[in-house]
Structures
1.
Amino acid sequence: MQRLEEAKKRDHRKLGRDLDLFSTNHEMVGGGLILWHPKGGLIRYLMEEHSKRIHLEGGYEFVFTPHIGRSVLWETSGHLDFYKESMYAPIEIDNQEYYLKPMNCPFHVQIYKSRVRSYRDLPIRMAEWGTVYRYERSGVLHGLTRVRGFTQDDAHLFCAPEQMPEEIDKVLNFSIDLLKDFGFDDFKLYLSTRPEKRVGEEAKWDAAEDALLQALQRSGYPYDINEGDGAFYGPKIDIYVTDALERPWQLSTIQFDFNLPERFDLTFIGPDGQPHRPYMIHRALMGSMERFFGVLIEHYGGNFPVWLTPVQVKLIPITDTQNDYAYEIARKLKDAGLRVEVDDSDARMNAKIRNAQLEKIPYMLILGAKEMDAGQVNVRLRNGKRLGAMALEEFIALAQEAIEKKIAI
RNA sequence: GCCCACAUAGCUCAGUAGGUAGAGCACAUUCUUGGUAAGAAUGAGGUCACCGGUUCGAGUCCGGUUGUGGGCUCCA
């Protein structure tokens, strides 16, 4: 009951409106299509920027592919056989049918195939923040967590069979490290094994399931096995995080794909000079930017860690005599890399504080005659704690440490 | 997509017995210069989701459509 109340307060749809993060508009835009407002957009920028940077450090290469592709692409990939009811109707141009992409894989496969690949090229880690569209039945749409257009932090790993165990290990650790950066540290892992209806040789299933299982054991996190719950094209690991209200959310997924390498006849030339079939691993770690954002909002109840907060510092001059002082402080804070707003409205200080609290701004700097004379700032935190007057440099150091360490206050 | 519920201002909601709409917040203008979560006045803002029916008259009753919420199923 209490938890229900708390969940209601943290509902990302409510906070999304209250904090001006995003909206939907079914009359004019369509259900399940998200409008990211400036503040939500900034958080998304920061999430993507952080993740992209560590992807580059982790040996991933970024690619960009179109939103539509000819029907022959989706026939070859098998999507028109197995996935058509989730795809938007085709667009016809010059007597050719083009489909909006529900997944990025076929395009990445085409990049792989654009030249002859040597075993020396592998592993190839191809990443794209790809926006995909899927027709989801009307009853299942929900805020940011179930939508019809979304951007996956997608990547495909192409590797030789002997590289596969190490790649699995890497991607699993990579995923957990990334989720930890966003404040999730309670994980539950699931291995989904071969279903009855499947493609691919038994030997490959054996190797893949074994590699996944060993990676799970090495990870040290609790895991379960969902017997027969894998996709028809390969086994997978799903990572569930537990949020602040102890609700599980599936974010990361790491999937083998025995289907596309066969259908598109992917090869690499081995040391023996002969063509070999590479392993292909599909993975999305945050899952989709939309769902991840929804979960993040609820996890923090809108009180984002300082590094992700759109406005980190609100300057509150007590009277308009302090407005110029506030602008001067704001300039110095911006120079120090902080995101700042000055509340120079003619509201009273109490109201300014209340508004900053409702906006869930982590730091409020109260600037009155005393502070201006002493050249100081008076710090109030969004949790109500007052740190009192201090030198600006002291505050900057304190805020920068919170940003650096990605801590929530 | 299925089952149940709901749809009044940007948001949260009132609307009593069917008699052609109200509050608070937000917004605008003005006054107010106030030390840690709401200073005050005035103003603007609605085809009561849409279509049809019953009625002298429908926000209110009936049917349909669309959308939303909760559950089921499915997924990033």
2.
Amino acid sequence: MIKYAILGLLHYKDMHGYRIKEHIEQNFGHMWSINYGQIYPNLKKLHEDGLISMTEMNQTGEKGPKRKLYSITGKGKQEFSRWLEESPEKPMLLRDPFLMRFVFYGFGDSERFVEIIGNQIKRYENDLKRRRKNLKRWDKNSIYVKLIAELGTSLNEMFITWLKHSREEILKDEQNNKKRERKTGKRRIA
Amino acid sequence: MIKYAILGLLHYKDMHGYRIKEHIEQNFGHMWSINYGQIYPNLKKLHEDGLISMTEMNQTGEKGPKRKLYSITGKGKQEFSRWLEESPEKPMLLRDPFLMRFVFYGFGDSERFVEIIGNQIKRYENDLKRRRKNLKRWDKNSIYVKLIAELGTSLNEMFITWLKHSREEILKDEQNNKKRERKTGKRRIA
DNA sequence: CTTTCTATATATACATAGTATATATTAAAA
DNA sequence: TTTTAATATATACTATGTATATATAGAAAG
């Protein structure tokens, strides 16, 4: 999939590897991240397959070694369009180290987990502030990029609501458990 | 992370590889999927590290080759608890072949994309029906498992709303573009 | 009664995604 | 003139995910 993301960016503008990462961070950093370890091997593969072409640049007055500027080829544009108009097979995949733990929170100390949930709420409330501030920035972009940014804030809002709801439910559940313990205790004494 | 998911399931109950997949599909199939290619190598590694123990079973009256039943060890429980009480570092990661394409829809034929968005809406509306039906089933489980199921439906609802909103915005944008074309056409004639 | 089918069960090879780190170049700062 | 910082590319390694191979035995078909 990253292959096509890179192809799409080169469809928009010629770039070298370092610039691709910069571009993604500036424009999609709120939802997507990428590493050089994914970029350079993919550029190499795309070049071998003839989907992109490469020119070594002799830039002056710039730091660092020579840039390798990549352009999408005709073949590349064709392959990109083919992919773009496919109806995607696989469903959305949500991976999160917090949610992975959440499933098993029944095995541990609920007080600690209420604390961790608090941390998550803080994190995503900060994210949301930043996203809302950036939303206006996308107005000049294509509606598609703007809509993706809107999805980001919606997801964020929904998740915060769910986190707060979960915290309440866990605290309620904990109090019920304590009550039950007290009752059992009394019976034992009696 | 899968390492800890498996450890968590074995914390709940002794299982062999095949059963682990079955269990995940029955209980978390709506949000999580796993393959034997992830399960068996992980079981092997966990066993080597002494976090789980293994007994070959001599089951009779059952199909297939001998099962290898795994149990979590004391060391495994310790390692699992350590992980469980960690505050997760990395943020949520949403990966979706549809959203990856969505970013680049400005490069292609909007009519085709409206069609694809329609397919997505159908898919997630079916998912939502299934999820709502299953929600009651989680009442008997731990509140954590139940809350995760609720998150699933919330995410689903939010995404459908966003898809419908996006479809409208794209159609509106298309009409604006056509109007602009007609105006430019007139000017050219005049 | 023996071949074929199906479900159970384990295992490995391979591809893709993601992290960590090594290396080179040059401008600017100390 | 050595060090630091930014630019730029590249590779090694780990984790995740897909595809496929292999084995066993009950059930069904002929």
